[in-house]
């Protein structure tokens, strides 16, 4: 009797805590969304309201039609091109590289791998300024390549894929090799299908990371037409001086949020599945 | 007998090695070299030895000295307050979610996880409205007229709120999985011994998940030292440079519209990098020793 009472008290406390936290977490998004449907005149005359008096789409119409000061759609297009290209290249590079480090035999293979891994832990703040110089020398400032390529050099995803590959039985490659298959055939026909789950997870996080990257695009893009949406929204912060524009501002923020939200809705299990990989580190 | 050289590994690991050299190894080495030079990013760097470090660390009259000390101080304030919150809050959420009586777990988890997928600039625009003086939810709810982003300590509070809102999801998922992996019979035998939920948390849950705790602590701390977007977007470093963190000074010195001062900025970056390395090593050492 006493036991069940105790459990139910802690159960209600847990619920209470989760409901309060969830409410605080979701209110800003709802408030931003609702404000994006308030008309300019209503914001000026009625001031603060949680929900609009009249729901109107005029802010979104303005965002789509008047692109002179803030080309939101253009920015979102730039971001999509960058994030999709980056993701595709990440998946190719990490799977091929991890195959080399886990399935092929060459001298100094593991020493090489762990040396690169150790170097990659060096704080990235130190290479920020020279990275800009390199991008400048390649002629990539204000081009999508500035954001697509440098991230391919990372070691974290290659480490994860290599770990994953270790669990695929070697007998599979050996028998294929006896049948005369080349390394590339083993990679593409046996390994690639087997590591699909980890590649999906790495791809999703690469997309989200690329879409949301902030410091780097703020540095490498000065051309308003060429920048991704995260850097573009920084330029809009000044609009807070002008209350007429608040609805448009919220509309722009909401539009910038939609792609990663959609990704979460459709691939939720992979985002949460990453927990198995992460908890793998407790080893 | 000529031994046949197998070149195919080069095709598999070679492309990435080139990328690694060009975008990680070279810039890291060059960043250290540049910290000993006077450099404007355009011309060739001129070797000045330890001058940049002397100026930054000891020259009381120099703006760079003030910027470094102030930026480092503000970065430490951010790390010191945000990191404990980014560990404790997701841990509490994970414990509540893993309570066996709680239903709709994935619903709560989704709501708390989703802000982490939102770009910091979009999130900052929305939170700026929440804290807006006239139109914001906070002031209108509590009948105050605080200018949040321009008054201390509220400027810091705004920065911490958006950081926690966007940042607890990842750690929450790691903790949930770890707590879920703790053997259930440990709790059952503790219950028989009469241990309450709080006792159980401190004597079973916490010790069982110490490795994920160390991992998240080290990663969260290293990430927090690179803080940049939240103060830039929410307070523009104000009031009176009270929330200007070191990354903001580094970016301004190297990339602002005037002549670039990349040598000084590189020296600040190296110092920040050294601090990150020392603190990560220290955390890892202390936590590992206490845990065993």
UniProtKB/TrEMBL annotation, chain B:
Q: Which family does it belong to?
A: Belongs to the binding-protein-dependent transport system permease family.
Keywords linked to the UniProt accession: Cell membrane, Membrane, Transmembrane, Transmembrane helix, Transport
Q: Where in the cell is it found?
A: Cell membrane
Q: List each copy of the ABC transmembrane type-1 domain by range.
A: 72-283
Recorded topology in the membrane? Multi-pass membrane protein
Origin organism is Oceanobacillus bengalensis
What is the protein named? Answer: Sugar ABC transporter permease
Q: Which residues form a coiled coil?
A: none
Assigned GO CC terms: plasma membrane
Q: Which Pfam families match?
A: BPD_transp_1
List the GO biological process terms. Answer: transmembrane transport
Give the PROSITE patterns listed for this entry: ABC_TM1 (PS50928)
User: InterPro entries under this entry?
Assistant: ABC_transporter_permease, MetI-like, MetI-like_sf
Q: Does the keyword section mention Transmembrane?
A: yes
Where primarily located? Answer: membrane
